[in-house]
Specification:
By secondary structure, the protein is α+β, with helices and mostly antiparallel strands. It has 9 helices and 8 strands. It has 2 domains: 75 residues, Arc Repressor Mutant, subunit A; 170 residues, Beta-Lactamase.
């Protein structure tokens, strides 16, 4: 073992374990006991206890009176300084609100994040069709409207890499055949918008368009509607205007 390895190996391992612990918290695990964290991470209880205690001390986790741990405010505070939170969401929010007023449907804003669609923001209403997306959550690229846009505007090499990964099929209509998905993405690029029909949730469809800065797609904005209200021409026109408005706001916020 080299001297550099000996000096950096232990801190790196501890950091990796801390990230594993923080990664346990997701939409289905809002609060966890120490035993549950140890089971999820497969870490020894003593190691888990030590790292969790450090995370609590640093404000990354909090411990309630019920002896369960939750994500701490320190993570939220740090996240506010990220470019996505600081610029994109702030720049897009007025346009997203107008888009919701015009359509009355679920409005979503997403970016590419580690091979998935990260939902930066989401507006819903009483008559909106139920969806599983949430702000701060991830969904597959190939089964969602915003995800297909984000994937379609990647380089050919990046698309091919994605097509070689195992593709989940949450619905019978989800496209998981590489050739069929490749053709679908080509259509998205050609027409400038994506359409999905019951590829993520039953009874719903979605339309999304890219938010472009120069020749690069930096985000996607879309709506999720009941299939009976999937008016393509109207929604594409409305979304295209919204995407241009968000891109303009991003340019002016430099």
């Amino acid at each position: 073992m080299s001297p550099a390895r000996a000096q950096t190996g232990a801190p790196t391992a501890l950091l990796e374990r801390a990230m594993e612990i923080l990664g346990c918290f997701d939409p289905t695990h809002h609060d966890l006991t120490l035993t549950e964290i140890a089971e999820l991470t497969k870490l020894p209880m003593s190691t888990c206890h030590r790292i969790v205690a450090t995370l609590v001390e640093g404000g990354f986790l909090s411990k309630g009176a019920d002896r369960k741990f939750r994500v701490g405010t320190r993570l939220w505070t740090i996240a506010q300084h990220a470019p996505l939170s600081d610029r994109l969401r702030e720049s897009a929010l007025p346009t997203l609100a107008r888009l919701y007023e015009e359509t009355g449907e679920n409005v979503t804003l997403a970016v590419l994040d580690r091979g998935q669609a990260l939902y930066v923001d989401r507006l819903v209403g009483e008559r909106s069709v139920p969806t599983i997306s949430r702000a701060g959550g991830h969904l597959p690229l190939h089964t969602t409207g915003v995800g297909k846009v984000l994937l379609a505007y990647q380089s050919p090499a990046a698309i091919e890499r994605y097509l070689t990964t195992p593709l989940v099929k949450p619905m019978p209509q989800s496209i998981v055949d590489p050739d069929a998905l490749r053709a679908d993405l080509a259509e998205v690029r050609e027409r400038g918008y994506s359409i999905t029909r019951q590829e993520m949730t039953a009874g719903s469809g979605s339309i999304a368009v890219p938010i472009m800065r120069g020749n690069k797609c930096v985000a996607a904005v879309g709506v999720v509607v009941h299939l009976a209200r999937l008016d393509t021409s109207r929604l594409v026109a409305t979304l295209t205007q919204a995407a241009a408005s968000i891109a303009k706001e991003l340019d002016e916020s430099r």
